[in-house]
What does this fold into?
Amino acid sequence: MNFITTVLVLSLRVTNTKSVAVGFSSLLNLERPIATGERIIFDKVLTNVGNGYDPKSGNFTCPIRGLYSFSVGVLPMPNNLVIVDIYQNKNYLISVHGNDNAVFTSASRTVVIKCNKGDKIYLVNNRAPYQIYATLDLTYQHNIFSGFLISPML
Ligand SMILES: *[C@@H]1O[C@H](CO)[C@@H](O)[C@H](O)[C@H]1NC(C)=O
It folds into this structure.
């Protein structure tokens, strides 16, 4: 292959590759008790490229099959225990444990998973009463749920 052919082949490849961007981040803007087993709905959307995240239900629905990363960060109320479970459909994946014996220590975890088109990722409170530090304090944004597509999978 000479130089011109190589450039042509490479540019054709780039043109043929559909670029897919999927990613969201959502914050928590609520202050009320959440029962054990209740969904935690991160309702204040910061980013929602691809519209996979629904701030009404708290579900992220994978728009295409692929490898995804999801992370949750929460700030427990001082002297409180917070446990947030991450689910994929009906399947429990991981928990975020925050035990704040002093004041204002955040807990955060990330999971990388394969997700089929239509799979739903959401968060469930594992500890009643509601013990996440939210307080309508949108200045500091203590709590966040984020996810993004790393790569589509055929
Ligand atoms: C959210 O996901 C759960 C678990 O798959 C499902 O039961 C529920 O119907 C979904 N809600 C919406 C509004 O999509």
